[in-house]
Amino acid sequence: RLNQYHTTFQKQKIFATKPSVVSLRKGIIEIAPLWINDALKVSGNYNIDQKKGEILAYADPLDISHQLIDLSSKIDIQSSLDGNRTSINGTVTILGGNVHYDMDQKSFPTDSDIIIMQDMKKKEASPFVDNLNTMIKVNTQKPLLYKTADADIKAKADLTIQKTEKGPLYTLGTAEILEGSVYTFQDKRFVFKKSLIAFTGDVSTPILDITAVYDAIKYEITIRVTGSPATPNIIFSSVPRLSRAEILSVLLFGSIDGAGNNSGDDMMKMMGGAMAKSALANAGIKIDYLTMGADGKVDIGKRLTDKIMIIYMGGEVSGAKLQYDYNKYIKGILTTDEDSSSAGIIYRRDFE
After folding, report:
1. Among positive and negative, which fits the CA dihedral 101, 107, 113, 119?
2. What is the pLDDT of residue 310?
3. How many CB atoms lie within 10 A of CB 35?
4. Does residue 231 lie in a domain region?
5. Which of 191, 197, 231, 296 is the most exposed place for a label (fewest CB within 10 A)?
6. How far does CA 327 lie from the centroid of its chain?
């Protein structure tokens, strides 16, 4: 009998002030019950000789407070053990919660066809995982909330986590971004329409159907993203009707004027540059200069002082450039790469 306990696992407090009872009699372990956080009641039994048992876990609600999420959920899970075989079935209903994980600290998916030799490790067999059979339904009674300086998003889920013996783990179902959710990018406010993320097996390759609207002063621009995260299909439309270059000009510059000097492909590269700059900034890398060339060449610059900027130049031959702004008209530039070094002065004068 355990009257109470308190511990911490991965910064999550685990405790009970209610008494828990775990006993061993004639080769049978009986849990009657074991309390987790005074809310999750675990009960059941396990025959050591026969290696068979049943364990039930129930909570209504179970409240979890963590640095990544505050979550309230109803849990009803049944586990059956038979030798090396384990079967886990049940339902987890999310009653509400707030996500604190900073999704702007992005990690980008890698191409599944690319294998990094240094990262390859011999996969060790896991009898528990191989012999696991599970079907757990995860749904939401109230939306999950994700709110930061740039985002105010509400989402619902209706998912099934499924696995058969010797088979892979599948995630099936949908996550819904509720209409009215908001994301701000480059000081522009995008309002979501009802959007879906569909899971058909591998959780890292969902099918997207996401629509967001940006209201400019004279235009309403709709962006729809379909396909997969690795190969998204981006569709632009507007009221009144604009060309793709004009839409991108509004998103980048706030007006259609930039479309006259740039093609749609050029504007897409600029948009990619803006997204890259935002991603780097959100990851804690503040940059002051970014360009993307037609050949995919990327230059990234960081201002060291008001007058000095260092620029990394990507491409087939990478290099660096040190720029000194003597005044608004004169710049001194020192450039070096693996093949050569050079120095120069740029004089620019504006004429009316």
Report:
1. negative
2. 75
3. 21
4. no
5. 231
6. 43
**Range from 35-44, 80-89, 209-218, 238-247 carrying the lowest mean pLDDT:** 238-247
Strands 195-201, 220-227: parallel, antiparallel or unpaired by DSSP?
Answer: unpaired
- Report in angstroms the alpha-carbon separations of 169 from 81, 85, 86, 258, 296: 19, 16, 14, 48, 37
**Are 308 and 323 members of one domain?**
yes
Is 319 part of a structural domain of the chain?
Answer: yes
- Contacts with 196 (C-beta within 8 Å, 6 or more apart), sequence order: 174, 175, 176, 177, 208, 209, 210
> Domain total for the chain?
2
C-alpha span between 64 and 37 (Å, rounded) = 9
Q: Residue 324's domain spans which residues?
A: 287-351
Q: Which two tokens stand for residue 229?
A: 């995260």
* Among the listed residues 204, 200, 250, the one whose alpha carbon sits nearest the alpha carbon of residue 223: 250
Q: Is the pTM of this model over 0.85?
A: no
Mark whether 340 and 321 lie in a shared domain.
Answer: yes
pLDDT at 81: 94
The verdict on 275 and 300 lying in the same domain is: no
- Which of 255, 282, 309 is the last residue before a domain boundary? 282
